[in-house]
Design a protein that fits this description.
By secondary structure, this protein is an alpha/beta fold. It is built from eleven helices and 15 strands.
């Protein structure tokens, strides 16, 4: 992906101060999972709503993070457990597929430090801890929603141009590999440059869950069109970033394709906005 725009900063000090407490903007009581649970146990929360889950040990301490792509990798045989039979992949323990090298933020961290943390570690969410206890989660979405008015910054100033895309004739297995091995949270689906939809790891997990074939991701020949989201909110290159923020916050989504006359020009995500935020 190429980010070719000059880039402009988004000053949010008119809406939130430097001394804002992390717990004032973070999400409280996040949904969690346990290290001893099986992949089969966590499919439903991913299929229905969540992109990531903090993983707790028996004492309730955070030991890792589990993302939708981690689950996809197991189900497709592209991670530990990949040599097992498809039905046995559902029995793989969360502790064996989670990301155990996690970073966390203290509840007393102030917003400038939080922004720096996001830019340095390049993750979408971090646990908020106090004495090893999980108090909440702070996500890129939590930061983006602090923008509450026009910014004077255009979408074209910070969007990613020429994003990686999935063509309409790609099958579900190939798209899942693109998402997992490339580390992407979403892929626009196009036909001759025209936007048809968006596909995310959660869309594929939902498809497998609804079809009751969660252990059979490998070898799925259905077109990506059968799992993608067709009703896609989009934006134009000349829109103010706040117009994007309203859609992201209102729909709790991670980004928007940027189009002009239905042609895909780029994509703007929570991360692009957070990278541009200053205070």
């Amino acid at each position: 992906m190429l980010k070719l725009g000059r880039g402009r900063s988004l000053n949010i000090s008119r809406w939130v101060g430097k001394d804002a407490k992390l717990l004032d903007i973070s999400s409280r009581k996040p949904v969690t999972c346990r290290m001893k649970q099986k992949v089969d146990d966590v499919l439903e929360p991913f299929a229905k709503k969540h992109r990531r889950l903090p993983v707790l040990d028996d004492k309730g301490h955070v030991r890792g993070m589990l993302a939708a792509t981690d689950v996809l990798k197991v189900l497709g045989g592209w991670k530990k457990g990949g040599k097992t039979r498809p039905k046995d992949r559902l029995a793989v323990k969360v502790k064996d597929v989670m990301s155990s090298h996690i970073f966390h933020l203290d509840k007393n961290a102030q917003l400038p430090a939080v922004l720096s943390f996001f830019r340095h570690h390049r993750r979408g969410a971090y646990p908020v801890l106090y004495r090893k206890s999980l108090l909440g989660m702070v996500t890129e979405w939590d930061i983006v929603r602090q923008i509450r008015g026009k910014t004077g910054v255009k979408v074209s100033d910070i969007m990613v141009r020429k994003p990686l895309v999935a063509q309409e004739n790609y099958n579900v297995t190939d798209v899942a590999k693109m998402l997992c091995l490339g580390g992407f949270r979403r892929l626009p689906v196009v036909k001759k440059g025209i936007l048809l939809g968006i596909v995310t790891p959660r869309d594929i997990l939902r498809f497998l869950h609804e079809k009751n074939i969660p252990g059979k991701l490998e070898g799925q020949k259905q077109s990506v069109k059968s799992v993608m989201e067709r009703r896609v909110a989009a934006t134009g290159p000349n829109q103010d970033v706040y117009d994007v923020v309203k859609i992201i916050v209102g729909n709790k989504i991670g980004g928007l394709p940027v189009i002009e006359d239905r042609e895909l020009l780029g994509i703007i995500t929570e991360r692009d906005i957070v990278d541009a935020v200053e205070i």
